[in-house]
Each structure stands twice: as C-alpha cells, then as structure tokens.
C-alpha cells in the first residue's frame, strides 16, 4: 500500500513547496509593504503633527490618522492573504 500525497495542485499533480523568491516577489506582498509604509507615515503624521487648521478643513476629523489606520489594516489583510494562500508553481506537464 502506498502513502497518499499530502497535498495536490489543481491539476492533480503533486504540490511543490513555494520558494522564498516566489513569496518575496508576490504582488500581494509588494502591495502590503507599500500600503504598510504609507500607513505608518500617515498614522504618525495624524497622531503627532496635526494642527487646528487641518482639522478645520476636514470638519474636525483627523483624516491622516484614520486613513493611516485603514491602510495598515488593509496591509495586514494582504499579508494574511499571502500567507494563507501561497503561490504554487505549476508542476511538470504530463
């Protein structure tokens, strides 16, 4: 009796472990890094460098702070998505 394959790709072939390069250059990872970087900058600017004139223009809402927080949440979701659904290179043709 043979051992069954642990996981299979969509085409029914054996699934290979994703390489570090394919995960590093995954578009979801790049988007997460960019959104995270801009989110950090906006959160810091909104938390520490806001003045009354900016708040008056935005109807009393600290737009930089809230936009930065939302961008950080979206970046975390992209990272979670990339971790849970890793890229799988196609297997050799049959």
TrEMBL record:
<feature type="region of interest" description="Disordered">
    <location>
        <begin position="1"/>
        <end position="20"/>
    </location>
</feature>
<feature type="transmembrane region" description="Helical">
    <location>
        <begin position="30"/>
        <end position="51"/>
    </location>
</feature>
<keyword id="KW-0812">Transmembrane</keyword>
<keyword id="KW-1133">Transmembrane helix</keyword>
<feature type="transmembrane region" description="Helical">
    <location>
        <begin position="63"/>
        <end position="84"/>
    </location>
</feature>
<keyword id="KW-0472">Membrane</keyword>
<protein>
    <submittedName>
        <fullName>Uncharacterized protein</fullName>
    </submittedName>
</protein>
